[in-house]
Design a protein that fits this description.
Blueprint lengths: L5 H4 L6 E6 L5 H14 L4 E5 L6 H5 L9 E4 L2 E5 L2 H13 L2 H8 L2 H9 L3 H14 L11 E5 L3 H17 L3 H15 L4 E7 L3 H18 L5 E7 L16 H23 L3 E6 L7 H12 L4
Length: 302
Amino acid sequence: MPLLSQSVASFLRRQLILVTGKGGVGKTLLTALLGEVLADAGRRVLLVETDPRESLHQMLGIAPSGGDIVGVRAGLFLQNLQPRRVVEDLVRERLHVEMLVRRVLSSPVFDHFVEGAPGLKELAILGNALRIVRGEMRHAPAVDIVVLDAPASGHAASLVTAPELISDVIREGPFGRIAADLSAFMADAERTGIVAVTRAEEMPVQEVFELRAALETRFGRGPELLVVNALLPPFPYADVFPEAHTHRLLRLWKERRLVADRELERLAANWQGKSVQLPFIALERGPALIAALRPAFEAVGD
């Protein structure tokens, strides 16, 4: 097993890890990267995304999953999860009779319920993960950890808190029992973990602050790890590039790094806990990019 820093190694004990951040900051990259690291450390890992456009397969260099659980390599699996399909499978399990199943699934009432019930899709996503790590999902491989490429941070707090909110309202029936079970699961810091991803830019940094505040209010804890992704190298300034004020690309590099330095200072002053900075690397999305970033990720300070 490769030598991991203490903070990365702590994820080996988790059953569910949520990777979240503002759209476009690199959540999918971090999901794939964390999955590779954990699988190489001897865990059986399922990576899950809910975006119907499917992006994780590009990072991993395999064909799209199409909604099924597919093998990436030994100990690493991938699924593009469709929340409606999870709810439909639950109906099939409960009713058993195919004629009744068809009537329910084709009902307009069912359509309205799936699309409009508050928290239902979040419950489906988390419930699917919990059942898989418990070995309760038919035709699913045995896995130790599910790593979820979670919704953008603006919706991540809703994802995490949905089970508790639903369990407060619905106490009976299958959905009530699932919600209560998930509420306890999500509140357990030994079984669930959260990775917040940002770029050194004002809006993404602000969103991770807001996510942390929401999680601390609800659970008394924030993300276990903050990842600052795609960080441009420091600008060497006029002693190296005297033409920096006139050359467009050099000027852009300088301006963006000044913004990054300001946001890094803000993070240093306001973020307690483990963090790691990943450099910008000019590679296309795929296994080569993951391999290039692994040394920096695995060197998270202890």
